[in-house]
Amino acid sequence: MPWFRLIFAACTGAALPFPALAETSPLQAAIGDPDHFKLSGSVRVRYEALGGQPRTGLAAQADQLAVRTTLAAEYHAKGWRIGGEIYDSRAYFDRTGITANEVNALELVQAYVGADLGDALGAGTSAQVLAGRMTLNLRSRRLVAADDYRNTTNGYTGLRADFKTPRGTTATFLYTLPQVRLPDDLPSLRKARVEWDRESFDLRLWGGIVARPRTLGAATLEFSYFRLQENDSPGRATRNRNLHTLSARIIRDPAPGRWDFEVEGIAQFGHVRASAAGTAPRLDVAASFVHADAGYTFAGPERLRVSVEYDRASGDGVGKRYGRFDTLFGMRRADLAPAGIYNAIGRANISTPGLRLEIAPAKRFDAFAVYRALWLADRRDAFSSTGVRDPAGHSGSFAGHQVEGRARYWLVPGVLRAEVNVVWLAKGRFLKAAPNAPATGNTRYVASGVTATF
User: Fold this and answer.
1) In the CATH hierarchy, which top-level class contains the domain 3-453?
2) What residue ranges do the domains of the chain occupy?
3) What stretches of 78-103 adopt beta strand conformation (E)?
């Protein structure tokens, strides 16, 4: 790997002399800071380098320069909102493994109309509706999210309604057509060709989530149901997923000088095709996921939090039922590992306990470090997102040890932030002995970048 790229990875976050931040962002100030119109944007430049590739079918070493630019505008008056947001996501250096997860040029991800209905449902209530193209981040974000670490995001077209009762119970209901990122062929991605993302009734996501605060002491209890309906469309073969996903979650948020916890369980059923081939047999689905963590935040300026956590997502083993958990449109970064060109650890066929340390001693700096031991939930299925598989199950179930960390620092508070992410994956027996495991040694990943918000 060229030395200049390694130097860039190490030094991108170096502090530079910038003036102090004004209360109003530069773009908003440039248009006179009107009360009813908001304008904002961002540019993120991130360099990623990977050695010891853990995924199948990819180069042993890879690097990538990912650039993401956004511009958002919203007009609001008399309870109405009209807004939109453009994402321009491009990637350089990695010319073979590039996908629509890295490149989506000049896409209108959001274009919506919203209305605040006030207390239309009774005194002390609130209600809002939103229609059009939108991004979504719902509660734990393990099922529906607008991925932020990845260079591109998830967009949804449809309807959203939010309600709140006088006692604080909230509910969100939605009916959406998730946007399929286009183009998705390698020649077009390399040229960053502009093509409108497609939404259609061949891919539908609908359902809702209800959350009630202070249900168990200070803890919030929530329930959700989502239905994903997918069918083949012209030029795009799919597995025709038809999935019902039910979840229950209880969480007590962290606070200085006290214990916190979170437990979420998800059950998934329905049916999928065995492959994208039109003649593939249909399989019944029986899959599950569980996340649990408990932590303590120490009182003091360091805001040190120590927690233990566990994640298990089912895999597909023997039998007529399909058991691999599908995380729908959920994020992975907050729980498991970075996406980007690492993208090896996701919410599928994994069983992993972990220990996490988090610290935020100043408003400008925060960091965390996590150790995880990694097993397969089912030794006959592919391990997580790697594609590495032993159908006979003879390679064991231990995948290895993962250590990761992140540090962020505001070079200019609210305007320019530097970030460094590192991962070391010491491969276990499975990732060494499975028939299609890449013989690339242990995995090293570093990503360093800056984000300018304006």
Assistant:
1) mainly beta
2) 3-453
3) 80-92
